Amino acid sequence: LVLSRYAARRVMAEDGDLVNAKLSRLAELRVEEMPDAYRVNSRKEELMLEYVGKFVRHFSSLHPERPPLMLTPCNECGRRKFVCTTLRPTQVPYTELYDYDKCARFVAQFIAYEPLDLPTSLPAILPSPATVMDWQAGDSFDCAQLLCSLLLGVGYDAYVVSGYAPKAVALADQSSVILPALRPAPAAPPAESPPPKKYAVRPRKALSSNFLKQREAEIAAAAHGDATALAPKGQGQSEPALPAADEDHQVDELQGRRVHAWVLVLAGKRMLEASLFLEPTTGSSYSLSSAPYRTIESVWNTSNYWVNLQGPLPPAELSYDLAAPAKWEGLLAESESELVDDNDDDPTLAAAELAAGRAGTPGAEPPQKVGVEAGASALAADRTRMDMPPAWSARIRLDRERLQARCPAAQRLTTYHTAHLEQFPPYSREDGLVERMTIFSDIEMEDAYEVRESYRNRKDKLSSRTVNQREGRTVETFEPGRSRALRELVSIEGSRREFRYYDGARLDGLMSRTEVFGDKTTLTYSGDGSTLTQRTASYAEASPGSGPTVRKMTERYRRTDEVDAEADVAKRTFDLANGVIKVRYHFGQDRVTRSWRTYSKQGHRVVQVDPFSRTPTDTELQEEYAQLQQAERESLTQLRETDRQAKDELTRRADEEAVIAEAMDEDEQVFGDGNFALPRHLSVSAYDTGRSKLVLSHDETEEVAEVPRDFLTPFLPRQLSPEAPPLTREEALRVRDDCLRSLKDRLVERATIVQSRLDEENAALSKRQTTFQRNRDHMDPREEEEYEAFCQEAMFRIQILEQRLERHTELSLHKYAELDTRLRSDLRLAALAG
User: Fold this and answer.
1) Could you give phi then psi for residue 588, rounded to 5 degrees?
2) pLDDT tens, residue by residue, 35-46
3) Which of 104, 655, 708, 805 has the fewest CB atoms lying closer than 10 Å?
């Protein structure tokens, strides 16, 4: 009967025939398959319902102006249940749901919110939290019950709150709320002022003229009077601007009457320092003083049910001391002082005597304070002991796949003030997108100027991408593990591009590469492995049909304490256009000038700050010039190598995005036995056992189905099949010659590489030996030790290369003979035998 009455209530949509979604789910529910606790009330539950009914009658007689309380709604099987027993504290075995803020966000994302069909009435159906979890849909009371059950399971002092909320809160409309990621950072707390000194100079008194102040006040008053006189009647004083909430009041015809439910978490347990409210429909948290709710009617959890006796006050002005009977009326007695002195063992009879012995006087209303105190004392005077029945709802079940999926429709769109937030479950898209934030410049949300995307489980390690369409700026962030240790890629269209690296994962210590198109390139190093900290290359204007030409290179080095400042290089400048090399040294201790040298083919110039330092000879300057020329060539080579790596990285990124875009268009996904997909371009963690097993089984299937490679197929003139004619002798000879020639070219290429490396080592050793023979008379013992160590290392490398070349020659002959034998025995080249 209750279900039929409730089914008569319909939410009329624009077409006028849309029935409430909860009723549709209830119509499809098989009641006979539900547990007995859902369909039948126990003796203890029946006693509790009878006690609650008498409490309601007694409370209504004392407070006839109060609306009905949310006490005994029907569950999904049509059975009346006490709301406190509908809660089922459950701790799910996931660390993601151990804190209150994470639980609130999970419920807001996991449950599809449905506003109440009758905004000003309490819902007649309140399903169990386990059923709400299975449905993944519900109203504010369903979401609050589920969230409170999860919070009670992890140890919080949580309560479900029934009250009234503004239209935006009741409809989960966040179009006037600023996106959390766009909110300004909280101001830093002011620095503590130092303690006052015992003896301090008094600050000078600020002198001001009282006459000038009075004169300014008279001028302002005269101007205000003129404006008032000239204004039309009734517009002498403008009304103060109404806050956003008051504007909603003027538009909302149901202001102050929209029923809503949320969760209260009191401080104390789980080391929670301050009490707060949690909004289950959006996952937001509010302090008691800043909550947007109107008033509170009642709160409850698994231990008791409390009715607010403090009047229709905002939540910020209420006291949350639930043990105060003058402020909160508890349905069940919580202490011996609240019990009735009765020797009757029948709690039902005692409850009947309680209801029959108190008569309400709905006559003249006493003052509010007196009425509240009188009602509280009247209800508490004849209280009897009632034990709370156990929870009838089943335990909340949640598997790992549903926890990760969260969004019920594989996508969740939330509209904020000038922003859209889209959320996707992991592994639901080929590109790994889990969140997209679109920021608009106007309230109408027509001009999108920035898009922020977050990714997970990408094989290319992409974690986020930010595109600013106004500035043409694109920022891509990567997780550790990508080749060449790329951390961030910043591109400004037509202007510059910057590569930032995980310098700890690179051998050269490169931290960033900044390229200003057509102007210069800057390489920044960490300086851990070497003293080099920065290398900059400036380019000349490119001529038509040719690339940019390096005009000047600059290198900066950090200070080395073990080396004298007169010999410690701080900056080297290679002026390639003019053929000049300039070297600047670090500042010495207590010096404001530093030494520098200039090298060129026309001559060298030396400027030394220390007058006692030794002046280098012409021979030493010429040797330094030769070393700097070699360093110039090496710097130019390294610069070109970084340019090549940058171009390769850009090409690789374009290929990766093109492949993923093609897969997104084709919408190809490999499904396993479960309900989740495994996109090809996403990686699976080893801790995700379900998906890991599916990936392994899929890889094994591909390995079995893979066709073995055939070395002869690339050289055949046509594809041979059992029905096709065999190769002629001329075709067979051509195939054999091409196959042998290919192997020979590859072997010769490898031998050439080894031989070139061997020649380079011999040339470097010979050059070092010549330099040593020429300068050995002027060398100190340290330089001789360095020369001997270099010769040992060079001889070791030369010996290894000679052994490798000799072994490669022997293996080449063996491989060539083996391939020739295989070709002669191949059936497809049987014409060779004839």
Assistant:
1) -75, 170
2) 889 988 999 999
3) 708
Angle at 417 between CA 415 and CA 419, to 5 degrees: 60
**Side-chain half-sphere of 85: how many Cα atoms within 13 Å?**
25
Q: Check if the beta carbon of residue 115 is closer than 8 Å to that of residue 139.
A: yes
Distance CA 275, CA 285 (A): 10
Q: Provide the residue count of the chain.
A: 834
* DSSP string computed for 728-785: PHHHHHHHHHHHHHHHHHHHHHHHHHHHHHHHHHHHHHHHHHHHHHHHGGG--HHHHH
Q: Which two tokens stand for residue 652?
A: 């690789």
DSSP states of 347-399 = HHHHHHHHHHH-----SSPPPHHHHHHHHHHHHHHTB---PPPPP-SPPP---
Please give the sequence-ordered ranges of beta strands (E in DSSP) within 578-722, or none if there are none: 580-585, 596-600, 605-607, 670-671, 677-678
- Helix, strand, coil: what percent of the chain each, to 5? 40, 20, 40
The mean pLDDT value for 503-528 works out to 91
| Six token digits for residue 515 | 């390229």
Cα(511)–Cα(523) distance, integer angstroms: 8
Whether pTM exceeds 0.85: no
Contact 669, 678 (CB under 8 A): yes
Three-class SS state of 698: helix
Region 382-398: mean pLDDT is: 82
CA distance 266 to 157: 6
| Rg over CA atoms, the chain | 41
CA dist., res. 464 & res. 460, Å (int): 12
Mean pLDDT (whole number) for 373-389:
60
Rounded distance, CA 753 to CA 804, Å?
11
Report the DSSP beta bridge partners of residue 671.
Answer: 677
Tokens linked to 427? 């592994």
Any idea which residue has 């008691």 for tokens?
A: 288
Place of tokens 């039309």: 232
In tens, the pLDDT along 264-296 reads 999 989 999 999 999 999 999 999 999 999 999
